[in-house]
Amino acid sequence: MSDKTETVARLSVFKTYKLYVGGKFPRSESGRVYEVSDQKDKWLANAPLASRKDARDAVVAARKAFGAWSGATAYNRGQILYRVAEMLEGRREQFVREVAEAEGLSKSKAAAQVDAAIDRWVWYAGWTDKIAQVVGGGNPVAGPFFNLSSPEPTGVVAVLAPQESSFLGLVSVIAPVIATGNTAIVIASEKSPLPALSLGEVLATSDLPGGVVNVLSGRTAEIAAPLAAHQDVNAIDLTGADETLATELEVAAADNLKRVLRPQPVDNAGWSADPGTGRMTAFLETKTVWHPTGSLGASGSAY
Amino acid sequence: MASASASAFEYAPAPESRSVVDIAPSYGLFIDGEFTEAADGKVFKTVSPSTEEVLSEVAQAGAEDVERAVKAARKAFASWSALPGSERAKYLFRIARIIQERSRELAVLETLDNGKPIKETRDADLPLVAAHFFYYAGWADKLGHAGYGANPRPLGVAGQVIPWNFPLLMLAWKIAPALATGNTVVLKPAETTPLSALFFADICRQAGLPKGVVNILPGYGDAGAALVAHPDVNKVAFTGSTAVGKEIARTVAGTHKKVTLELGGKGANIVFDDAPIDQAVEGIVNGIFFNQGQVCCAGSRLLVQESIEEELLDSLKRRLSTLRLGDPLDKNTDIGAINSAEQLARITSLVDAGQAEGAERWSPACELPSSGYWFAPTLFTQVTQAHRIARDEIFGPVLSVLTFRTPDEAVAKANNTPYGLSAGIWTEKGSRILAVANKLRAGVIWSNTFNKFDPTSPFGGYKESGFGREGGRHGLEAYLDV
């Protein structure tokens, strides 16, 4: 009898995939889920089908987190981003499996994607305390004034993650947004949301304050519409939108003059090229501060 | 208030001579290096806002003219963008020098067409215009060093729409970086101030600029809309109202056009209790009464710390009583005319709303000329954040005074607006300046000064004040394929 039980394979524990909002893991308030399958239509999981209300809740969480995150030192943000890479490294096998299933890749090709994604976190971690020196600086105005231009984060950024590259593409659009101090609401790839939802679990254990990144899964068009029209969202990255949706969202975004990053052509190697600074500068504002320098003449300082 | 007998300072009139400028009775559109009539033959009159005298009759561009101008600019783009940067630079240096040579003529012209005091056109507008061309001239052969890659490329044809408050300066902000980077231009000046742009066309001719590189289309909003929507325009640059800016953002949605928008503002000028009062008063006056307050970055909300409110307002009122309003061509004039009857009506209606909503209105004794468009310097106290005069951009010589107790409250009130263009901070405490500047959501922060501009200094807003920067190295990005 005991022999017989030993031959029965252990039943694995499935994971309930959940949204990641404000540092917590809620189900969709709508109670809806949708089936996520691999490339061969094999069922993988039920993912939350986020609603407009979930999107609005995510905006509240992202706004709440913005003050502290944008006010953190660049060094501190860099360490936290690096910590994300450390946590990802530890969960590497899980992400390789999820990416392989999501994108129909061989194990080695999926591993290459995950490795590149981890390396990209490290790359952006190093940018946090350098971007201000690269894009800001003093301006030699023709008068007795000190004049300094510095980049500042735009604010709350809605990010439509790429539909195809479920993990490397995802990381490539999230990391530059938060490296500079913005907070993000990320809409995961509609067809392949599981790596994004798992990334939320990594972020939650990486010292990243709750609300800095919020991950929603569901129908991209349904979630993106209220975000593009939301008056407390400052910018939108349309990477994951098709042409028609991108145009609709850009029109809606004009209502409060959101900064819009239109879908960019992706390199042939699928997000593996050097990303440059463009995805950071798209969500930066330049602030220029003037102050009189005065003078040390006999008459003393003068404004 | 030249005629106010109460004034301690009486000045004899000191008018600048208008004979230095020769305004023709009519002007055409400037397309492909030639002045030409509008396709449908339409014209409009441009008047001097201080006298309502008709200055000239100007061809009014329509959609067909936009088509012609864009075609000319497209044709010119091939050879202009192929020129070595060092050659483009020399054209821009020539333009800068000719503007310096003709600056007295242009200052008088601008004052006539716009209504602003000659003191300002002579000492602010024109020097900045020449400096802007001189600055961007030098970039034309150094673009590979600007931080946008080794060989950044121009975009193509730039469609530019500019406002009436700084007609020639806004033209310079648009055209100088566009040409330096190798783009060609179709520019529409505002319908109330077309003349300086048409004189600029003549400067292009004198400089030998290849035809079609700069095209000037005087006209109304319909011409601007046609230009922005034109499928062969690669870059749109607009300075003007937030409402039109949003419409432009909708128009270009789904296209590949690059856009910069420099829109409205409701700048907070924050005065702390340790501020040097006399300097702060000068800064407040400069912040809201420069150019009759018709400035997008005006310090139109004065936030004063409660403990010094009375002292500051007494000083401010005393200072306002010495401002001289009148003939813009008089070299003593501080406050000129409002640019148009429409703008005057807008200012009047918002000021009426301020009174109706319960704020307290004050103006110095001030006699307004009998013809032209005029508005006395006006100050509102007892203003709350809910009042329209604290929320809407008035774009006139009207200051709303609010108070605060703590720096946190000052920052919260300053940021309580959909705009984010400018702000001022007055305090002797350096660390407070930096702390407050850090928290203000605005693109330009003047500390212990206000309304300073320089071609090397990037200018532009946060939030609904628009996006993109004009001026400095940053200003190149808007015209490069990066």
Structure description:
The complex is a heterodimer of chains A (303) and B (482). Chain A has helices at 2-7, 52-71, 74-90, 92-103, 107-127, 131-135, 168-179, 194-204, 220-229, 243-253, 278-281, and strands at 33-37, 43-48, 137-138, 145-153, 156-160, 183-187, 213-216, 235-237, 259-261, 284-292. Chain A is globular, with a radius of gyration of 22 Å. With 303 residues, chain A is an alpha/beta fold. In chain A, the strands form three sheets. In chain A, strands 7-6-5-8-9 form a five-stranded parallel sheet, sandwiched between helices. Chain A has one domain (17-290): Aldehyde Dehydrogenase, Chain A, domain 1 (3-Layer(aba) Sandwich), CATH 3.40.605.10. Chain A is 43% helix and 17% strand. Chain A contains eleven helices and ten strands. In chain A, β3 (137-138) and β4 (145-153) form a beta hairpin. Chain B has 482 residues and is of the alpha/beta class. Chain B has two domains: 18-263 and 462-479, Aldehyde Dehydrogenase, Chain A, domain 1; 268-447, 3-Layer(aba) Sandwich (Aldehyde Dehydrogenase, Chain A, domain 2), CATH 3.40.309.10. Chain B has 14 helices and 18 strands. In chain B, the strands form four sheets. Chain B has a seven-stranded mixed sheet with strand order 13-14-15-12-11-16-17, sandwiched between helices. In chain B, β9, α8 (242-251) and β10 form a beta-alpha-beta unit. In chain B, α1 (63-82) packs across α7 (221-229), α3 crosses α4 (118-139) and α4 runs parallel beside α5. In chain B, 59% of the residues are buried. The chains are: A alpha/beta (303), B alpha/beta (482). The interface between A and B is large, with 35 and 44 residues. β10 of chain A pairs parallel with β17 (444-447) of chain B. Chain B: Residues 36-481 form the Aldehyde dehydrogenase domain. Chain B: Pfam families: Aldedh. Chain B: Belongs to the aldehyde dehydrogenase family. Chain B: This is Betaine-aldehyde dehydrogenase. Chain B: Keywords: Oxidoreductase.
